[in-house]
Design brief:
Largest sheet: 7 strands, antiparallel
CATH class: Alpha Beta
Shape: globular
Structural class: alpha+beta
Number of domains: 1
Strand content: 25-35%
CATH architecture: 2-Layer Sandwich
CATH topology: Alpha-D-Glucose-1,6-Bisphosphate, Chain A, domain 4
Order of helices and strands: EHHEEEEEEH
Oligomer: single chain
Radius of gyration: 25 Å
CATH superfamily: START domain
Distance between the termini: 111 Å
Helix content: 25-40%
Strand order of the largest sheet: 1-7-6-5-4-3-2
Number of strands: 7
Length: about 210
C-alpha cells in the first residue's frame, strides 16, 4: 500500500514577494548670473520677501500671501553712504507664504511656505520648504561681490535641491519641475538687470 509523500516532497512555506521600494531621489538645479551692481544693493533686494513676485513669470501669478519676518544680524555699514540701505530683510527663522499657478490652464493655486535657515549678509541665505508640493526643497541664494573686467559687480548663484513625492511618478514629474525652474530662472535673469537699475536710481535719489 502506497504511503503519503516523503518528508522531502512536502510543500515548503511560500516566500513572501519582495516589496518594491522606490526611494525619493534628490535632484539638483544650478544657475548663476553676474550683474554690474554693488553687492549691498543686490543682497538687499533679494533678502526682502516682497520682491519675490517681481522676479517670477507673470503666467504663474505669484502672490506673497504672508510673511513672518525675523530680524537678521546687524547689517554691515558700507563705506559708501549710497550703499547703506534700510530695506526689510528676512533673517533666520522667517517664514514666507506664497501662492502661484504651476499650470497656467488649470485655475488651481498652490500654496508654499518656506523658512529661512541660513543668513549671512552680502554672502548668501537659504530657504527650505515647510509646507508645499515637494518632499524636500532647499534653495541656496549665493550673492557675492565679484569684479569682472575692472568693473565691480555681484555674482548671483542659485543652487536648488528638491525631492518629489509619489516614487517613480515623482521622478518623472521632476523632469517637468526642472523645465519649469529653467524657465523661471531664465525669466529672472532677463528681468533682474532692469529691476536693479530701477532700484539703484531710487537709492541714488534717497542718498
Amino acid at each position: 500500500m502506497m504511503r503519503g509523500g516523503s518528508a522531502s516532497a512536502r510543500a515548503r512555506p511560500a516566500t513572501p514577494a519582495a516589496g518594491i521600494n522606490i526611494k525619493a531621489m534628490t535632484q539638483r538645479f544650478e544657475t548663476s548670473q553676474w550683474v554690474p551692481y554693488p553687492v549691498e544693493l543686490v543682497f538687499a533686494f533679494f533678502a526682502n520677501p516682497s520682491n519675490l513676485p517681481h522676479l517670477m513669470p507673470k503666467k504663474l501669478e505669484t502672490k506673497l500671501e504672508d510673511a513672518r519676518v525675523e530680524p537678521p544680524p546687524p547689517r554691515p555699514v558700507a563705506q559708501d553712504p549710497a550703499r547703506r540701505f534700510l530695506s526689510v530683510a528676512a533673517g533666520v527663522g522667517s517664514e514666507i507664504l506664497i501662492s502661484f499657478l504651476p499650470i497656467p490652464w488649470v485655475p488651481k493655486r498652490v500654496s508654499w511656505m518656506a523658512r529661512i535657515t541660513e543668513f549671512e549678509w552680502n554672502s548668501h541665505f537659504c530657504d527650505e520648504q515647510v509646507r508645499g508640493p515637494f518632499t524636500l526643497f532647499r534653495h541656496r541664494h549665493g550673492i557675492k561681490a565679484e569684479t569682472r573686467d575692472g568693473q565691480q559687480g555681484t555674482l548671483v548663484s542659485d543652487s536648488v535641491e528638491f525631492e518629489m513625492p509619489f516614487g517613480l511618478l515623482g521622478r518623472i514629474g521632476g523632469v517637468f519641475v526642472r523645465r519649469q525652474l529653467a524657465g523661471s530662472f531664465a525669466h529672472r535673469q532677463k528681468r533682474l538687470p532692469e529691476i536693479l537699475a530701477a532700484a539703484s536710481r531710487q537709492a541714488t535719489r534717497r542718498a
